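Running this now, will post back.
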Amino acid sequence: MEVVQKVEGFIIDEIEAAEEKLNIRLSKYTKIYILDLLKRLCTEKDPLNLELIGDRPLAIVLMEAVRKDIFQKIRDLKAVGDVSLIFSGLYPEYLTRRLVDIDYYIEIGKKSYYLLSDTYSNLKRQQELFILYSQLVAEFITLIQILTEMASELHFLDEENLVKIYNRYRRTKIRKYLDILRKNNVEPLIPEE
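Update: finished.
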């Protein structure tokens, strides 16, 4: 139990440090969700339901999910959203070996959480879950920025491959990638937004 508390404390510290460094704040629901997801990532065997997804493309899992009963639909959409969020933010180097890159995962993740919020919008007793998933859609890029900042601090990012960093910045406009480029005296040709 003490180890889990230390893990949770570490994760909270990392999230708050990233928020402060980026000068952004997550909503209460979103912060609790990402804290729980990261804690499960450290303590559970398959917190992202990767067994469920297998080697199928996330878009296929998402399309199949919308045709399932409500319980399987929720489970599958949550798995797609969580995988997309974690891989595009915390483990983007995993995506290097894939046919698609970070922008695909971002769009699939946002769509999955949107479909979850839409599912919960029709359930009167589940309005807090509707709010949660609506906020996850709205703050998806913010979450990825925080996770990318954490990934950099944890040395999960390959900051040496500037072509890859440039391409990720071009596709996502994530500030950490811009910072890495500028630290290496590379100024992107695309305008900042």
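Residues 2-157 form one domain. More later if anyone needs it.
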